[in-house]
Amino acid sequence: MRKMKKSRSFWESLGFALRGAVQVFRSERNARIDLVFALGVLGAAWYFQVSQLEWVVIIFTISSVLAAEIMNTAVEYLVDLCTLEYHPLAEKAKNAAAGAVLITALGAVFVGLIIFGPKIFLH
Q1: pTM, whole model, 2 decimals?
Q2: H-assigned helices in the chain
Q3: Which pLDDT value is given to residue 4?
Q4: Which three-class secondary structure state does DSSP give residue 28?
Q5: Confidence class for position 7, pLDDT limits 50, 70, 90
Q6: What are the residue numbers of the active site?
Q7: How far apart are CA 11 and CA 29, in angstroms?
Q8: Tell me, what CATH number does 88's domain have?
Q9: Is residue 113 domain-resident?
Q10: Buried/exposed code over 65-88 (b: 16+ C-beta within 10 A; e: otherwise)
Q11: Which of 4, 25, 81, 111 is the most buried (most CB within 10 A)?
Q12: Is 23 exposed, middle or buried (0-12, 13-18, 19+ CB in 10 A)?
């Protein structure tokens, strides 16, 4: 028989989510690198006084990359929990999760070029 899941308040759930995000940024070098780039982009957006729509795109893009990085870490943790030995499916799962981060990061680069390129190279 399964144990009933304890009902949690919104604030408890928010606390768990924040703890998880902080844990990833403390323990994963690539997540910290992503965070540094995100802060740099936010600084550039402020400096170039981007439009409201550009802010929305920038914030959505940054949050997508950071969320992909957190999900990648979660997949790595789960795979490592399931097996300490090499398994080809474990490798595929980790590579697929890392690929998701790569795709979002490449998308972020293109968003950056579209938004900041004209501001940097045409002025």
Answers
A1: 0.89
A2: 10-27, 29-47, 52-82, 88-121
A3: 60
A4: coil
A5: confident
A6: 69
A7: 28
A8: 1.10.287.3610
A9: yes
A10: bbebbbebbebbeebeeeeeeeee
A11: 111
A12: middle
Q: What are phi and psi of 87, to 5 degrees?
A: -145, 135
Q: How many domains does the chain have?
A: 1
What residue numbers bound the domain in which 81 lies? 51-123
Q: What is the arithmetic mean of pLDDT over 8-18?
A: 94
Q: Which residue has the tokens 């499916």?
A: 89
Torsion of CA 100, 12, 9, 75, to 10 degrees: 20
pLDDT of residue 2: 61
Cα(52)–Cα(64) distance, rounded to whole angstroms?
A: 18
- Residue 6 pLDDT greater than 80, yes or no: no
The answer to whether 71 and 94 are in contact (CB under 8 A) is no
How much is the pLDDT for 35?
97
Whether residue 55 lies inside any domain: the answer is yes
User: Does 123 map to a domain?
Assistant: yes
**Which among 91, 26, 113 has a CA at the least distance from the CA of 105?**
113
